[in-house]
Amino acid sequence: MSYLVIMRHGQSVANEKNVFTGWSDVALTEKGIQQAHDAGKKINQLGIDFDHAHTSFLKRAIETLHIVLSEINQQYIQETKSWRLNERHYGALRGRKKDDVKLQYGPEKFAEFRRSYTTVPPLLDQPDEEHKYEKIGVIEPRGESLKMAYERLIPYWQDSIAPKLLDGQNELVVAHGSTLRALIKYLDNISDDDIDRVEVPNGKPIVYHFDDKLNVISKKTI
Questions:
Q1: From residue 20, how far is each of 17, 69, 82, 95, 118 by CA, in Å?
Q2: Tens digits of per-residue pLDDT, 90-127?
Q3: Buried b (16+ CB within 10 A) or exposed e, 181-209
Q4: Is 11 flagged in the annotation as binding?
C-alpha cells in the first residue's frame, strides 16, 4: 500500500491580481508562502515517509514544494521537475485580468475558457521561445484546453509516478490547478462533463491511499 499527496502551489502574484497565468513564471505572495508552510505542517502530521517529490518547471510550484519539504524535514528526498506538470497554457489570455476577459467574451464563454474540458483559449500568434524548454526540446504551446493538458500529463503519471506507487513508495506532487484537475479526473474517473465542477484550491493537500494494485482505498483533503 502507498500514499500519494498532491497539492496546488500557494497563492501566486497572478492569483492575487486575478489574471490568467499558465506558463508565465510568477512568484508566490506572502500569503502563498504562508499557505505552503501551513500545508507542510498538515502533511507532517500524517507521518508519511516520502520516497520522491514531483513538481513543474514553474517557480511558484517549486518554491511551494521546497517549503513543504522543509516543514516535513524531508529535503533530502529525490525530486523531479517536469514540464508535463506545468499549468495549462492559457494562450493569448495569459497575463490578462479575468474580469476584462469576462467583459469581452461574456460570462458563458469565460466559464468555458476556465472550466471546459475541450475548449481551447485564443491562441498566441506564435510559441514563446524560452531557454529552459528549448534545452529539452519542448516547444511551448500556443494555448491548451484541459484535455490537451491531460494528454501531456498522463504519460508522466504512467511512467514516473504510478510505477513508484505500485512498488510501495510514497509520492508527493506539487503542481497547478489545471494539471491537478486533470490528474484527479484520471484517478477518480470523472467524466468530461463533470470535471468542470472540480476545484483545486491553493495550498490544500489531497491525500490518496492506494492498495497494491493502485486502487484508491481512500481520499481526503487536509
A1: 9, 28, 21, 5, 18
A2: 999 999 999 999 999 999 999 999 989 999 999 999 88
A3: bbbbbebeebeeeebbeeebebbbbbbbb
A4: yes
What pTM was computed for the model? Answer: 0.95
| Helix pair 177-188, 146-156: axis angle to 10 deg | 70
> Which one from 63, 71, 87, 144 is the annotated catalytic residue?
87
CB-based contacts of 55: which residues, under 8 Å, 6+ apart? 61, 62, 64, 65, 79, 80, 81, 82, 85, 173, 174, 175
CB atoms within 10 A of CB 121: 24
Q: 94: annotated binding-site residue?
A: no
pLDDT digits (tens, 9 = 90+) for 4-57: 999 999 999 999 999 999 999 999 999 999 999 999 999 999 999 999 999 999
Q: Report how many helices (DSSP H) and strands (DSSP E) the chain contains, helices first.
A: 9, 6
Q: Is 37 a catalytic residue?
A: no
87 is catalytic: yes
The answer to whether 88 is annotated as binding is yes
Residue located via cell numbers 492559457: 90
DSSP string, 114-166: HH-SSPPPPPPSS----HHHHTTTPPPPS---HHHHHHHHHHHIIIIIHHHHH
How far are the Cα atoms of 42, 93, 95, 219 from residue 142, in angstroms, in the given order?
37, 10, 14, 35
